[in-house]
Write a structure and sequence with these properties.
5 helices, about 25% helix, alpha+beta, Trna Endonuclease, Chain: A, domain 1, 11 strands
Amino acid sequence: MLATMLKSKPSLFARGAGNGKLGGGRKMNPGKRFEQKFMDSFEPHAYVLRIPDNVYMCGNRLMGNESEADFLVVTGTDAYLIECKATCGESLQFRSVKEHQEVSLVEFDDIGERSHGFLAVEFYDKEGYHKPHRMFLLPIGEWMRYKADSGRKSMPIKAFEEMGVELAYKKGAYAFEGRWFR
């Protein structure tokens, strides 16, 4: 019964029949679109819990608190805390990953050998989201080491190629084949 309920759970994102729009006709931002693709890629292989953004109303304005990460992914043996980032550049700016997110991922990674903090990073073409993209899984330790040692303000795609795991992009979706580490 529980397995049936979990398989039929509704999506945590509003979808617009693959047109890249949220319900109501608004265009989905690249970060939210990537989060949806991440979830779609990993759900067949693990339990994927979307950590809700802390959003609340203050008067007539929508306000938000910072969440620790975007997803908790649980496989049969391991747990992964994931922060998703999408960029249309040739590198990911260090300022794109907030300090509290780095701290959360590192603390989760330090819990034990079966808990892992990861960045999931998508490089997309700003001229059109329909063009080929690249997605990498990068352990938070690799990110922190590169940030401390590189003397740069960003991590280029070349570093992701060397330190991360790239997921194949096939027919508009990422194909996760069960490999997290290099």
